[in-house]
Amino acid sequence: MILRTDFKLTWIYLTGCLVFMLASVAYGQETSDRETHKAQLDAYRQQVAQAAQVFLDTSNTDNERAAAIESYGSFFEENDVAGARRIILNPEESPRIRALALIRIDNILMKDDSLVIHLLRWLEEPETPKELRHTTARVLQGAMFSLLMLNTLHADYLVTLRVLTRDMDMKLREMAFTTLAAKGDNYAQQQLLEGLESSEKALLPPHLSVQLLGLRLNEKIYPVLHDVMLDPPDEATRLETVRLLGGYEPSQARIIRYLKDPNESEQIRRAAMGTLNANDPENFPSHVLPVILEESASDDLRSYGIHAVKQRRMANRFKLLGLPEDEFDKAIRMLERNSESATIRGVAMEYIRKVH
Amino acid sequence: MILLPTLTSNFFQSKNLTRHPLVILVFAILLAVFAGCAVIPTRPTESFPLLEIQVNNTSETIDDYITWAPTYCRIRIINHNQFTSAIDVTLNNMNLDPASPGGKLLFDTVVSQSNPTTTATQTTLNLSLPADGSWANFVIAGQFGSPSLRDKDAVIQVTENRPDSTGITLSRKALMVRIRKNANTLTREERDRFLNALAILNMTFDNYEIYQEIHSIAFGQAHSGPAFLAWHRIYILRLERELQAIDPSVALHYWRFDEAAPNVFHNDFMGGPPISGFADFSLSNPLNTWVIENLSGILRSPQFSPATSPTTLGLIDEAATLNLGGTGSLYANFRSMEGNPHGMAHVSAAGGGWLGSLTTAVRDPIFFMLHGNIDRLWAKWQWTYNRYDPIMVASYSPQGAYSPGNIRMGHYLEDTMWPWNGLTGDPGTPTDPNDDRPSTAPGGPFPQTVSRFLSPPPTPRPFDTLQYESTTLNPSGLGFAYDDVPFK
């Protein structure tokens, strides 16, 4: 066919061959990309296996063993996983090595209740070496987050956490309270509330206790936070209570007063703005307007107020169509022309541009 | 046309005007115009073809968004009554400079796409447009590695093929190669569009809060079981589509948690290092006024600095994750990634914050970027080991539909998933806890869209999540792709 004198057909034939070759190369390239990637993963797996052998070899020093697996987060081969498991359970091994082994096989906890039971036990025991204990806490926290959430041992995990709320190790105590409070655990919440009501019973710093109670608010928490807001042990704690009480009716008037008080700290006023925006969005523009007009207030504070209203009105612009400008809009227009602050004039201009 | 300059010259010579500067200038201008006219390709004005190009074979522009997967398109002559013969055209990418950023397209004929594992591969495509105005079909795809940076930056250009090679451009069609990207690499514009859409969703009557409500009671429906990946693929897809209803150029970008992400954990993006436990935002960042469930701000205290990643705390990296499938690369083993890296990412990023618990995690919008990466890892595992066929045990297990045992209802391949199936309470055997569901099913069925009708169906199953890419045999994929996961 190539020898035919018909130039047009020859040209078509050659073009077709070229296209076919290019397509083959493209397809072949795509296939080889996948095969290359698979080969890289296989090579990685082999590297991990080799490193695991060094780690599992107890004749090596701890430093040699740790260095061998430093770059590898997980073991894959069944023998290596089994070897690591033996190390974890071997009290003759150093805490450092046991911790390193644990981190590398944490995904087998899905199928290894026996190992989970061991982990829970030495997590509870203050005599467990700190490094191993902290790694165990972290591994269990990651596994219990969702993978083992329905495991029958999950209830045992919560019991262990409750024990840890009174542990001398503050990091573990804080971790335990955080996990329990986020679940709305009654025991943990009660401990935190009692600690706020009486400082002798406090197991955590009060500002942290308030923050953790804020993870799962309920009716019994609000009155305690209100009292703390009125008579706080320190300013950091008052700040945390203000953040949470914008929707609690007995507290609202006080929070609005904090917002409008030019002598109040900026942090408190800003927290007041945030909680009122979250809990009273309809009236928020009227709450925040005096602060926005207050030329002595910081640009950050005033800008925050304008941005907050802007965001909500931009999102709901269709509801504002055809409506006349309200007092807030008029005030922003006035600020855009007359504010002493260039920053506020700019923020006001952006509000007008985006909302109207 | 040739005579006119000659006559003009004779006239000026007779009037002794030939050396006047103004005359010379006018003459030069006239010459230039006539010379230019001579090379402009023209056709009789009564037969200039007007073309219509459709992406996804619809006239709608809201579905002019493609990925690396093949997308059916078609083109025709609108004013075909003026033509007696077909018009030969070449389709190519208007953005020809390989060095310039932005979306780039590839083309192919429909016939060459008979293999469902291939996508368009040609940089140009020749078509013959029928003179009777009927459609000529073709296929396009985004060129892997060249996603769009903004809406409509990928352009199909249609040029007429003329014997003298002086083809004129007959038509153009702008679209977007919309891809989920590594959030740490976004341009400022991409970042801001994403943030604005997210903030608008947050501020529009409970449109974001519904996601928090769903996830806070999902427990066994979405976790601690085989459907963990499938459930979250649908869950985050729903949010992505709501963001796209606000701004169609937005995709749900991912937080690559095994690498340092200083641009993500920045006060201009998802929040910088915390102040008093709360993520810090710049004043103009829309997330600065985030509100959720009567709370303001975002409670998050990452246990790593923006310059590092949770791998320093034991989170496993991508290579380790992709190897979790073990010998045979089985889904049953791969899904253990729910523990590490998934759980580890949550607790590492949370510190004492919302991300650290199932019931509060979605209050923090970075949840969706975290799960974007979880989904990307699953997609990459699928690509690496060719795990798209849902009826292969290696791709997904358990197969079939629920039967009493150790695995909860909703986790089998053929089970519909809560909440989209609307089922609540204990619909089955009272003594079987594995078929129980929450008492409510917020959010309703999965919303349908014009461009992706029935994909996924209103009550999706794990089955519907595996072949997430559209193919020529299954044109209605889920409509997303990742910047570093090629088409199958």
Keywords, please?
heterodimer, A: 356 residues, mainly alpha, 19 helices, 71% helix, 0% strand, elongated, disordered N terminus, B: 488 residues, alpha+beta, five-stranded mixed β-sheet, four-stranded antiparallel β-sheet, 11 helices, 13 strands, 25% helix
Could you describe the 3D structure shown?
The complex is a heterodimer of chains A (356) and B (488). Chain A is built from 19 helices and no strands. Helix content of chain A is 71%, strand content 0%. In chain A, helix 4 runs parallel beside helix 6 and helix 15 packs antiparallel against helix 16 (299-315). With 356 residues, chain A is mainly α. Chain B is α+β, with helices and mostly antiparallel strands. Chain B has eleven helices and 13 strands. In chain B, the strands form four sheets. Chain B has a five-stranded mixed β-sheet, with no helix packed on it. In chain B, strands 1-3-7-5 form a four-stranded antiparallel β-sheet, with no helix packed on it. Chain B has a two-stranded antiparallel ribbon with strand order 10-11. The termini of chain B are far apart. Residues 1-6 and 37-42 of chain B have low confidence and may be disordered. The chains are: A mainly alpha (356), B alpha+beta (488). At the A-B interface, helix 1, helix 6, helix 8, helix 10 and helix 12 of A face helix 3, strand 12, strand 13, helix 7 and helix 9 of B.
- The radius of gyration over CA of chain B amounts to 29 Å
Query: Biggest sheet of chain B: strands side by side, in what order?
Result: 2-9-8-4-6
Mean pLDDT over all positions of chain A = 91
Number of strands of chain A: 0
Give start-end ranges of low-pLDDT stretches of chain A.
Answer: 1-5, 19-30
Query: What is the helical fraction of chain A, as a range of percent?
Result: over 70%
Order of helices and strands of chain B: HHEEEEEEEEEHHHHEEEEHHHHH
Oligomer: heterodimer
Percent range of helical residues of chain B: 25-40%
* DSSP strand content of chain A: under 5%
Largest sheet of chain B: 5 strands, mixed
